[in-house]
From TrEMBL:
Full protein name: ABC transporter ATP-binding protein
Species of origin: Faecalicatena faecalis
GO MF annotations, alphabetized: ATP binding
Keyword ATP-binding: yes
A Pfam entry, by short name: ABC_tran
Keywords annotated in UniProt: ATP-binding, Nucleotide-binding
Keyword ATP-binding in record: yes
């Protein structure tokens, strides 16, 4: 059973920017689904549509089996959205925020208190319950905001860039919290992120987006299968030189296999040894000045760049 089904969702803003271009995705109930993309990829626009704040121009969206365009009012109580700006009242304590939230959702007081205690215990937030939220760091505030949003026991929790700007310790605490929400509460989590590592660690499914289009979707294992392949790194004195020589190399290797990273060309390859020989032979014969060639393990960023570049060139996966 799917929590979210989106088919051919498109959105163009009044200024003519096409933020989403026929995006389709399916999110299974109880999974963590990450939408991964660089700035401007369309992630926030999609989250705004899925959380009923914005209407798509085209496309069909079903949330928990209900048609979004017809049943928005029935869907809203079943979902919660934690945006980049925290919605928590920083003048109030966590307890006060939670009890206030429970009144908004008309949860009876006894039930609300039980729920609040469970959330505070489960997420280890005992030390933050009494003081005004403003007294805590940004990372803690965001975790408190999520705990607050869990008061309404949402079936789907949407998170827009939950760890942006956080240090590694705060990010790890956030990841633990999100895993707990999925594993112990059974809540479906839909999040957006810039960080491939985060998507990899947390998600059951990852969807990579670029320029309003979906580039690929799959499990982190499927994405990591790209990473297992070694890559060649050809070192040049300058970025301009690397860019210039990539044009020459394209007469031998597919353009989709190569990207320029700083002053190097990164080349993904199926057979690293034979490609190393071919590349070295080609560069030496053509008297192309290069500093060296290394066999390297591609990073997650390489995978992302490779996949998004293929999409730019209109190739299939
Ligand atoms: N309200 C708006 N009016 C006009 N254009 C917009 C609006 N909101 C977003 N855009 C444009 O739509 C495109 C997609 O933006 P969106 O915020 O959805 O991307 P994003 O992937 O969430 O990026 P970021 O990580 O920077 O938030 C961008 O080109 C952006 O400038």
């Amino acid at each position: 059973m799917y929590a979210i089904q989106a088919q051919d969702v498109s959105k163009t803003y009044k200024n003519g920017v096409r933020a989403l271009d026929h995006v389709s995705l399916n999110v299974r109930k109880g999974e963590i689904f990450s939408l991964l993309g660089q700035n401007g990829a369309g992630k926030s626009t999609l989250i705004r549509i899925l959380t009923t704040y914005l209407k798509p121009d085209l496309g069909l969206v079903q949330i928990l089996g209900k048609n979004l365009s017809m049943k928005a009012a029935r869907i809203r109580p079943k979902i919660a959205c934690v945006g980049q700006q925290t919605s928590i009242d920083t003048y109030l304590s966590l307890e006060e925020n939670m009890m206030f939230q429970s009144r908004l959702y008309r949860i009876p007081k006894t039930q609300a208190k039980l729920r609040m205690e469970k959330l505070i215990q489960d997420f280890g937030l005992q030390s933050y319950r009494k003081y005004p939220v403003s007294s805590y760091s940004g990372g803690i505030k965001r975790r408190l905001d999520i705990a607050l949003n869990m008061m309404s026991a949402p079936e789907i929790l949407f998170l827009d860039e939950p760890t942006v700007g956080m240090d590694i310790q705060s990010r790890m605490a956030m990841w633990d919290m999100l895993k707990k929400i999925r594993n112990d509460f059974g809540t479906t989590i839909f999040l957006t992120t810039h960080y491939l590592e985060e998507a990899d660690i947390l998600s059951n499914t990852v969807c990579i987006m670029k320029d309003g289009k979906e580039v690929t979707q799959g499990t982190p294992e499927e994405l990591r299968s790209f990473i297992r392949q070694d890559a060649l790194r050809i070192l040049f004195p300058t970025k301009a030189e690397a860019e210039k020589q990539m044009v020459f190399l394209q007469s031998v290797f597919p353009a989709s296999q190569m990207t320029v990273r700083n002053t190097d060309i990164m080349m993904n390859t199926e057979d690293v040894r034979s490609d190393l020989e071919r590349t070295a032979g080609f560069l030496l014969e053509a008297h192309i000045p290069f500093y060296g060639i290394q066999i390297v393990q591609p990073t997650l960023e390489d995978v992302f760049l490779r996949l998004t570049k293929k999409k730019e060139m209109g190739e299939e996966k």
